[in-house]
Amino acid sequence: MSIRERLFGRKKDFRDPSIFHRVSLIAFFAWVGLGADGLSSSAYGPEEAFKSLGDGHRYMGLFLALAVAATVFIISYGYSRIIEQFPQGGGGYVVASKHLGPYPGLVSGAALLVDYVLTIAVSIASAGDAMFNFLPDSWHASKLIAVLAALAVMTIMNLRGVKESILVLTPIFLVFLFFQRLIIEGVAMSGLKR
Q1: Alpha-carbon gap, residue 58 to 40, rounded angstroms
Q2: C-alpha 145: how far from its chain's center?
Q3: What are the CA-CA distances from residue 156 to residues 33, 126, 135 (Å)?
Q4: Helix, strand or coil, per DSSP, at residue 9
Q5: Helix, strand, coil % (nearest 5) of the chain?
Q6: What is the pLDDT at residue 120?
Q7: What is the pLDDT of residue 193?
Q8: With 0-12 CB in 10 A as exposed, 13-18 as middle and 19+ as buried, what is 166?
């Protein structure tokens, strides 16, 4: 087995009729793959949005929270409509291609790729900030190297395939959910004690 095959896996023959069964995900792993994006954004998004208000505009925090809630509702509603109209799957590329034509479909597909790359980059940078805040200041010089290494690992995992990436990320996702639950219960319990 060559180094290329060890890193990226064997080539897949897309004409093989059984490939769908080898690369498809069960519902749980599909949920992990799709849910990781929202959960990673929830770890840094609200804080960064509130920080961007600055000291002079903190009173707008409530309006910001309402705008975020409205945005989540609109996106959720839009996705539910897409699922109703395209139950076989597809997403933005298929919807834009069918309703607007091939060129808007390509723009939608390109936007999804850019969004995917930026989401991973920002999530890894945010995770690097969070993890290195717990470490001594003398370690902070290594943060860029650690973040770039994590980005390289994520790139290789994604080049191997979605299924392989999700299988590796599932334990991390579940640990994240577990600790989020502990934090929520801790905040709720501290509120009850007051």
Answers
A1: 24
A2: 22
A3: 16, 20, 27
A4: coil
A5: 85, 0, 15
A6: 83
A7: 65
A8: buried
Query: What one-character DSSP code corresponds to residue 57?
Result: G
Residue 138 to residue 140: CA distance in whole angstroms: 6
Tell me the DSSP string of 136-177. Answer: -GGGGGGHHHHHHHHHHHHHHHHHH-HHHHHHHHHHHHHHHH
φ and ψ at residue 97, rounded to 5 degrees: -65, -40
How far apart CA 111 and CA 38 sit, in angstroms, is 17
What distance in Å separates the CA atoms of residue 34 and residue 57, rounded to the nearest whole number?
34
Residues near 140 by Cβ (< 8 Å), separated by ≥ 6? 132
Say if pTM beats, i.e. exceeds, 0.70: no
Contact in structure between 8 and 159 (CB atoms under 8 Å):
yes
pLDDT digits (tens, 9 = 90+) for 78-132: 888 888 888 777 778 888 899 999 999 999 989 988 988 888 888 888 888 888 9
Contact in structure between 166 and 33 (CB atoms under 8 Å) = yes
